[in-house]
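Q: My hope is that you can spare some time for a protein that puzzles me. Underneath my words sits a plain record pairing an amino acid chain with its backbone structure tokens. Those tokens are not coordinates but codes from a learned vocabulary of shapes. Thank you; the sequence and its tokens follow:
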Amino acid sequence: MQEKGTISIHTENIFPIIKKFLYSDHEIFLRELVSNAVDATQKIKRLASLGQYNGELGDLKVEVAFDEAAKTITISDNGLGMTAEEIKKYINQIAFSGATEFMEKFKDAKDANEIIGRFGLGFYSAFMVADQVEIQTLSYQDGAEPARWVCDGSTEFEITEGSRTTRGTDIIMHINADGEEFLDKNRIQGILDKYCKFLPVPIKFGTQTDREQDGEDEEGKPKYTEVETDNIINNTNPIWTKAPSELIDQDYLDFYKELYPFSEDPLFWIHLNVDYPFNLTGVLYFPKVKNDFEIQKNKIKLYSRQVFITDEVKDIVPEFLMLLHGVIDSPDIPLNVSRSFLQADGNVKKINNYITKKVADKLAELFKSDRKSFEEKWSDIGLFVKYGMISEDKFYDKAKDFALLTNTKQEFFTLEEYKAKVTPNQTDKDGTTVYLYTNDPAKQDTFIQSANKKDYDVLLMNSPIDNHFVAQLEQKLEKTSVKRVDADVIDKLIKKEDAPAHVLTEEQSAKIKTIFDKAVAKANFKVEIESLNPDELPVTVTMDEFMRRMKDMAAMGGGMSFYGSMPDNYKVSINGNHKLISRIAQAESEEEQTQLAKQAFDLALLSQGMLTGPELTEFVNRSVSLI
């Protein structure tokens, strides 16, 4: 048997283009060929189960080997094998129509994925690293003869009688100069670990040395012998392929350690298992993230029939769940031939919605079944929930029943519970309920205590996403305003009808303003005389709630860069009803007035952590002189 011919693709330019476009991700050749070998192995197993193959299956596995001296990499299986006719059908006739038009359309394309994505070119990825590829194969069919196919990367091939004596296929790649990096044990092991870690057929790559007990010595201590065993690189039955009823908590924790060896144990997990209207399995873990708002993308791994595809899952997993870890496996997600990029279609959207619903349902279940435990986990999961509520309206609708607000006393409330708690006392004269919050209780303690004196409650909002969450609460909650506790003096944050009367005359107010304008002497600090409770501080420095919030969002990269470039502007509120202000107004000398005003202003700055450098030194020296 001998035959020569030309591969039926109607153009001689296909191979250079395949090489060019696949080369950017050239390590995938190993994944493609090992996956093909696994498919062939599973098919013979399937035929045997159906009674269509009655021979001995033998030890079903795929073997990867390399010979550095001969510069070859070989992938062997004992699967279906092929006849010479099947080689011609599956290898020579690349299965796409209109090849000439295809080549014309894509000859100048920059996006390889569209090319590789729609045509059956997985086998030809071998030519990224090889200048010659050889197939030795023997079909499972009765009376089949071994066949050999060889091609040097041009459109010419040769089929001759093969040398294989057992069922299956060897793919032998003669590695070119550019691919010699792959003639390395660690390089190959790394690729197999990345892409083939959970394939359903054992993958052998060389051998490993194990120690086995071999009796005992004279003192009764165990003796060990070193033995060579197959180095099987994969777990053929990962937990996402099993039913949840077969698993215990330790199984999920052990698998998490297998995926992320150096991570803390996760908080909990969600087992995905659906077969209609699409097929999807997987396990998603909630890791401990607290307030380290570094979205650790590339933590969820996407598989298709246990073959690793990508860790770029943004189309499948909602953005807010990119903080999760775990595995998703679906044969229904459309992939290109390099299996590296998702193509958005109806199934992807359905899967996205399904995952969002499953996560919301799991959180609701945890909240209802054990609220105390849920509250204990809130510092870790709150970031997920708030991010989801901001990102997805559908998630907000579900999460509003279990999302928690925490106050400075470490008490927890649902949105509905908190509204009921503060509405009676924190509703202003216009009928708007005002939520107060702090993002730094230690720094803003003066303002918190001022609020507490009026029996106002203060929420703790100190996660990096809370600026956005506050804005959403204002948008979603009817007649509700959310203000940081240091955004103004407390009487201005929640304006009531019973504001205290002004004890200063108009002339005294003008005089005090002049004194403080001179003492402050900063263009970005605006002095205002306020009618406040005499028990409040004499001077308070604040930044407008809106402006500060916009600046905080700009600092986070929240699309508010215009505000980020604006200078910081502050309001200096002078409590005209405080006895110190009256004392300043009545001071005999201008020097004493200025000194007392500067001292009061610096105290306000100090309480905000805004007094530093020479100004702090001056304040200390002035304080000593006043004692």
Observations:
- The chain has a mean pLDDT of 83.
- The CA atoms of residues 450 and 605 lie 16 Å apart.
